[in-house]
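Sequence, please.
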């Protein structure tokens, strides 16, 4: 069985976050955005978090790792997720 496409993972993660009351959006990289920002931004009750979606077996690029460290240093939760289940676990952890 082939691993899911990243866009499929992103769609499922966003749907799972929204089902749990998070506002969620896909970050569309462009020439006007910051390179390496994670794929998904979620916000709930004034708290923001980022998720970088990756296919099973794939890892973030160096610039993505750098941006995730910057976000974490600024106090923003960030995680690499490979499935909706990973995202749900992350969101439950940061929800207190």
């Amino acid at each position: 069985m082939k691993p899911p496409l990243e866009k499929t993972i992103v769609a499922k993660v966003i749907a799972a976050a929204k089902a749990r009351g998070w506002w969620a959006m896909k970050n569309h990289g462009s020439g006007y955005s910051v390179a390496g920002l994670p794929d998904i931004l979620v916000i709930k009750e004034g708290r923001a978090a980022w998720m970088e979606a990756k296919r099973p077996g794939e890892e973030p690029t160096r610039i993505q790792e750098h941006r995730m460290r910057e976000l974490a240093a600024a106090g923003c939760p960030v995680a690499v997720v490979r499935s909706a289940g990973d995202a749900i676990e992350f969101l439950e952890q940061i929800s207190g």
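Residues 9 and 48 are 20 Å apart (CA to CA).
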